[in-house]
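Practice problem: predict the structure.
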Amino acid sequence: MNAKRFLTIAIICLVSANVMAQGKYSYGSKNTSSSSSSDSDSGEMAFAVGYSSNTAVLYSDSPGMTGLFPIGDNGAIQGFFALYDSDPNTYGMGAIYKYTISGNQSSGFHVGGGLGLGKWMNDRSYMHIIGDAGFHFSLKKHILVHIDGGIVMKSDEQPGNAAKDSGMVLAGFSDHIGLALMYVF
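Answer:
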């Protein structure tokens, strides 16, 4: 338990330091700093693709694909998709709109909301309405890390008596702390 607390505090410190030094580059907005041309941004909108373990959207903690598409200076839509096993009828997909409230799209804190839905076992479906909060930072210029948590209103069909598992959950979005690792183009 102490290791998790230490890791959480270390990540918060890293993100805070990165937010304070944010003027170097941002993938979603025009660069106005006087950095060298190798660090400068063309000002064009960019997108990112990568790995996600977001159980709020994808239901299980199996790996999924994610894509991040910037909208304006502070907004982005992060889409998710996963196949759970070799059966093509078991899948998860969804999207979360993220608005950066502090920092920029390269490093900062974000809030937002979204929806996840799919089928996870023998035609058992799920639908999650998501309230998201998290932080993001970049490693070098092209690697972006998002860590998310928040509240999930869920409606999941359970095996057996076809009952629904419904309710609200407040937690990190996976065993991997809602981690998404993406490459920025």
